[in-house]
Amino acid sequence: MALLHEDRLFPADATTRSIARRIYAAIRSLPILSPHGHTSASWFAHNTPFPDPVKLFVQPDHYVFRMLYSHGISLEELEIANETISDPRKVWRIFARNYHLFRGTPSRLWLDYAFQETFGLTERLSEKTADLYYDTIEQRIAAPEFVPRKLYEDFGIEAISTTDSPLDTLQDHIEIRASGWKGRVLPTFRPDSVVDSASEGFLRNIAQLGAITGEDTHDWKGYLRALKNRRNFFKSLGATATDHGHLSARTANLSVQESERLFSKILSGNADLSEQELFRAQMLTEMARMSVEDGLVMQLHPGSFRNHNPDIFRRYGPNMGADIPSPTNYVEALHPLLSQFGNESAFTLILFTLDETAYSRELAPLAGHYPCLKLGPPWWFHDSPEGIQRFREMVTETAGFYNTAGFNDDTRAFLSIPARHDVSRRMDSAFLARLVAEHRLDEDEAIEVAHALTYDLVKKAYRL
Amino acid sequence: MALLHEDRLFPADATTRSIARRIYAAIRSLPILSPHGHTSASWFAHNTPFPDPVKLFVQPDHYVFRMLYSHGISLEELEIANETISDPRKVWRIFARNYHLFRGTPSRLWLDYAFQETFGLTERLSEKTADLYYDTIEQRIAAPEFVPRKLYEDFGIEAISTTDSPLDTLQDHIEIRASGWKGRVLPTFRPDSVVDSASEGFLRNIAQLGAITGEDTHDWKGYLRALKNRRNFFKSLGATATDHGHLSARTANLSVQESERLFSKILSGNADLSEQELFRAQMLTEMARMSVEDGLVMQLHPGSFRNHNPDIFRRYGPNMGADIPSPTNYVEALHPLLSQFGNESAFTLILFTLDETAYSRELAPLAGHYPCLKLGPPWWFHDSPEGIQRFREMVTETAGFYNTAGFNDDTRAFLSIPARHDVSRRMDSAFLARLVAEHRLDEDEAIEVAHALTYDLVKKAYRL
Amino acid sequence: MALLHEDRLFPADATTRSIARRIYAAIRSLPILSPHGHTSASWFAHNTPFPDPVKLFVQPDHYVFRMLYSHGISLEELEIANETISDPRKVWRIFARNYHLFRGTPSRLWLDYAFQETFGLTERLSEKTADLYYDTIEQRIAAPEFVPRKLYEDFGIEAISTTDSPLDTLQDHIEIRASGWKGRVLPTFRPDSVVDSASEGFLRNIAQLGAITGEDTHDWKGYLRALKNRRNFFKSLGATATDHGHLSARTANLSVQESERLFSKILSGNADLSEQELFRAQMLTEMARMSVEDGLVMQLHPGSFRNHNPDIFRRYGPNMGADIPSPTNYVEALHPLLSQFGNESAFTLILFTLDETAYSRELAPLAGHYPCLKLGPPWWFHDSPEGIQRFREMVTETAGFYNTAGFNDDTRAFLSIPARHDVSRRMDSAFLARLVAEHRLDEDEAIEVAHALTYDLVKKAYRL
Fold it and tell me: Chain A neighbours among B 385-444 (CB < 8 Å)?
């Protein structure tokens, strides 16, 4: 008995499946490149064990607790906000009893992978097996080798990026580098807190940015210098990329004078919503300009209506499973930025979307023309078997494979990383196998493409 | 020879097909729950036979006559508006001669099902077999047992809901209950005519609502009391749900004072389009508030641009196949209502869409978070094999199966009901079989899920 | 060894594939009807040979050079703007070296088809085979029979339409007709340059239209007469259709007085963007009115944001692979035109889209109701295996097969024409084979439908 079948996610047709198996065999053991995600550098800096199964599987995984919440299980019962879980076994049993809710979801695939591959469990999680699971996991995570650095190595990770505020001292990253450990944990420059005036504590953040850099961040030019300064600091600790999570993909291309005036208005605290949007738009273009100069790859993750549920936000804060995608336009929104920097071959801008309608309509045509553009993998809700398949089906014919940037796991659930990369590799193998079976591609080419999608294109796009 | 193949709609791959067969075998004979539709309570109250084949298959089915109309066949030729069909055989021959137009459409599947299962016909409908069909159907519907109550029983219906105006006396429902007949025919509270000020005769309807309930419906509070009163009347006759068919999904959350002012403006007849939209928006939130109190499940069917063809509307009125879907936003539109009632576990709001782009982008993420939300099945143009498949593919990975509400036939074509449920059961079996064949779900789980989708989830979501 | 497999594009499942083969066998050799495209009438008028492989495969094909450009290869290197290619072998080698970029794209299928079927090449194009290809193609195109008229015949073309300005003298079309050659090359009336006031040289064009027709084109009525006059001229040379390429699908239905006033404003050069949009909208309705009268079929190709890359546009002009689709609404936009002419059976309006979300949401419901509407095939970025499959899957269930208008190749790459029609025939066979394998259609019906999609519906929709 096993939770995982060797042929999972491969098409049922026997011919296609055997092709998929061969393609997958060529890539399954390649190292993991994880160039975008939300693991914590402190894990690798301090290398301390995980406290209990709930801290490992439930609390850090909004995919898991939002599904339970959607069925009327309160976040209190799940002890979501608790620093220390008072009754982890009780929470675990709730999770186990409701495991059927995850049928047909990628969470199920990721969880089963970790249960079997990391913990040796082979019987399905349910009310009946809840305690068996709890005891097995509890025992295993108490073992001395069950620590972040060892898991990094066991998982075959070659490099992993975190996501960090410009105000972060990156102390953990400094310690990792100083420790002599061979793992590559890279910071990513995510400046939302100092370029999006709607973010909490924005004015305080601007002041702090000034204090850290010794620049006058209340002056437009000083503010830009301060940002450059921090980008360089990130680069010095291995960063190769920036990341931007605005609600829309809107960019602007204002003159210096207009930018100065807008910045003053923003700092005055009297900017209206459209001025705040314009400022975010202009700052994307400024970030692109800096990327052209300093070579940091730029990532854009737009389209999430954050904290849609005000009651949950008030009680629990952000990232509680209540971020909902919204329609996102790219063709108009990116026009100002692309008009300025779109033809720069030295510049790389990786685009993501939560709006799948943009794949074939906007993103593939844009990436199939502009030298600077690459398409990031299916993101968040779409990082799933069907989501990956739709991405390849809707993007490939116009953008080709080589305008995409391989896979991102984008997770804070550390144990799910190998599982997520495995799903991606399997789905790419399945897609390529179909092309081969339908004589749209030869098998030797498919294997080359699979290798590129898994490794080469990630390395190149992220300059790892 | 047969119109229907035992394996229809199952994937061609032999392994997957045999799994689909086994799943389907476990659910094919389950009772039909039809919690949303447009059959007429008077059929069951009076139990009178159907007059002729055209009245049975052409006149009540806008899927059928709009397709004929799109090929230049006039509604006059089809006698669409005639109380009595003057030459039903002639109309039937037109239909038969054009039956090839329905190739590849769900109508073809539904019609063939009724032709074979209800009338024993096995040769394809065409110009050549037109009269054979006409004679066979005519003879059969003249038989004493071919009456609505008997068909209800033969079809294996356990409960069926109609859709009714708050101004309706529900006399037919009263008579059904008084008759001693065991069939469950339930009214549904659909208040569009008294909450949407753009509906025909709105001010007259408000006055009539006052007359029926003895409330002063020109006063905001009296108006709300009158609505509650009618909801309770519907409940007393078995209603478990309300239904709302606005053009957009917009909701609002005004104060009592603002609502009062807006209502006065609406009653004055001077409200502009945006005030009318705001009033509809506020009334959705009011209906939600009442649902929280009285337990009626709320259904929202937005996004239809009704009566797009003004000439047809002028000559034939509504529901003539000229209602066209339009883009529908949910994430912004529902925010006011969900901010107020989204976390109420006792409240159920079932969402439908004619805009499939909302499935993976908005609806699944919303339903995968808010406890009150469930997703209704693919609706209208999307109640079809490909439509059902897209729904499951785009919704399941984020919302899971258990945040959906099973199937609705939503029809006024009574004979199509078993056919529609059969298509749905087959397509769900096919989807689940693929998950099993690809080792994403075990077969015992798939059978459990199929049962839930066919029966348990409908019963639970609609509180039947 | 071969570039093309006999079963390419057919589903891998053995049962389905064998059905697909039988359907395809029934249609593969039908004549090619090419009712919309961008070949040059001068080719057929002058019948001169093609100069070199680059002029044949790279320069006229924006699918090809935009992909190379997206990977940082400059348009200078590709000699895109050069009248005479200075070093065609060098350009060819660049193309060959980067041929892997086209993996998974339709260009790869079209190119391989031409390489094998027209040039007898059987080894894959690559850096290694670049010169073999170059030499083979160079030699073959120097042969006396490698001329446009002979290729037209070899390709099995029965009729081909060009796309022409109302200001064109159609001299090439006149010469073709005078030559006694049997080929049917038909002009198409594409009036964008004289109805879209945003087009370059608009006012000059209006004056020229007056000069050609002897009408006062600065008077609304004279302007309309001039357009009618040119339409009749096009008809006299075999035109059966018009074509319209506006950014949006918006139509209007102004009174004569309003139209006159708007036209004056447009001619004054002072119209703002919304007045220019309104004028385009009104002109679509005027074109429809003329079509009702003169019987020319109307085609609408909306939704392309032209020349998105200003630097490329400035240096190279239009059609450089930098046209990006944008979201397109039909249901509101077409309402004015359809309210006026939607029920005219004698009028045919063929709709295209670059926004696939409109297929099931708007286009299929519109075409499934209005007698005047037919749906054109998947266009441009969506003229591809996956694009064709999505089109059939999203359109057929609501509009049926018979509200579609068969295939268009829409190309300026002459050699790709048989390849494109072959892909379309194969994908339609594959789609129909699935319906047969799933018992949704009988095989005899599928073959009839395939014939209709390939030939009959094109002939009928375009009145060829």
Answer: 393-394, 396-403, 434-435, 437-442
Residue of B nearest to C357 (CA): B357
A305 has a chain B CB within 8 A of its CB: yes
**B412/B57 Cα distance (integer angstroms):** 10
Does residue C450 lie in a domain region?
Answer: yes
d(CA B382, CA B242): 22
Q: Answer yes or no: is C442 within a domain.
A: yes
Q: Show Cβ contacts of residue A180 under 8 Å, excluding neighbours closer than 6 positions.
A: none
Averaged pLDDT for residues B219-244:
98
| Interface probe with B: pick from C248, C331, C439, C444, most Cβ of B within 10 Å | C439
Last residue of a domain, one of B122, B145, B168: B145
pTM here? 0.98
Q: What is the pLDDT of residues A114-158, one digit of tens each?
A: 999 999 999 999 999 999 999 999 999 999 999 999 999 999 999
What does the alpha-carbon distance between residue B203 and residue C350 come to, in Å, rounded to a whole number? 42
A412 exposure class (CB count in 10 Å sphere: 0-12, 13-18, 19+): middle
Cα gap A263→A358, rounded to integer Å: 31
Q: Are residues B308 and B234 in the same domain?
A: yes
User: Which chain A positions have a beta carbon within 8 Å of B396's beta carbon?
Assistant: 104-105, 386
Specify the CATH number for the domain of residue A455.
3.20.20.140
The alpha-carbon gap from B102 to the nearest alpha carbon of chain C, in Å, equals: 6
Helix ranges (DSSP H) in C378-462: 385-399, 417-437, 443-451, 457-461
Q: Which two tokens stand for residue B117?
A: 């299962």
| C226 in the same domain as C118 | no
Nearest CB to A368; choose among C4, C67, C326: C67
DSSP string, B251-274: -----HHHHHHHHHHHHHT---HH
B104 in the same domain as B221: no
Model confidence over B45-82: pLDDT tens digits? Answer: 999 999 999 999 999 999 999 999 999 999 999 999 99
Instruction: Give the HSE-up count for residue A95: Cα atoms under 13 Å, Cβ half-sphere.
Output: 32
pLDDT digits (tens, 9 = 90+) for B191-225: 999 999 999 999 999 999 999 999 999 999 999 99
Which of C7, C70, C306 is the mutation pick for testing A, counting most A CBs within 10 A? C70
**Pairing status of strand B304-305 against strand B324-325:** antiparallel
Contacts of C108 in chain A (CB under 8 A): 440
Residue C27 forms part of a structural domain: no
Size of interface A-B (CB pairs under 8 A): 132
Displacement of CA C256 from its chain's centroid (Å): 33
In a domain, A87, yes or no: yes
Whether A102 and A175 map to the same domain: the answer is no
Enumerate the β-bridge partners of residue B350. Answer: B299, B374
Residues A200 and A65 in one domain: no
A397/C5 CB distance under 8 A: no
> What is the extent of the structural domain holding A76?
51-142
Single residue among B110, B145, B180 that ends a domain in this structure: B145
Q: How confident is the model at residue C314 (pLDDT cuts 50, 70, 90)?
A: very high
User: Does residue C82 register a pLDDT over 80?
Assistant: yes
B462 within 8 A of B158, measured Cβ to Cβ: no
Q: Residue C346: how many CB atoms within 10 A of its CB?
A: 12
Which of A14, A309, A357 has the CB atom closest to B342's CB atom?
A: A309
- Give the Cα separation of C387 and C397 in Å (integer): 16
C: neighbours with 3+ CB pairs under 8 Å?
A: A, B
How many other CB atoms sit within 10 Å of the CB of residue B107?
Answer: 25
CB C382 within 8 A of CB A360: yes
Regarding whether C106 and C163 lie in a shared domain, the answer is: no
- Report chain A residues whose CB lies below 8 A from the CB of C356: 357, 360-361
The alpha-carbon gap from C101 to the nearest alpha carbon of chain A, in Å, equals 6
Span B384-394, mean pLDDT? 98
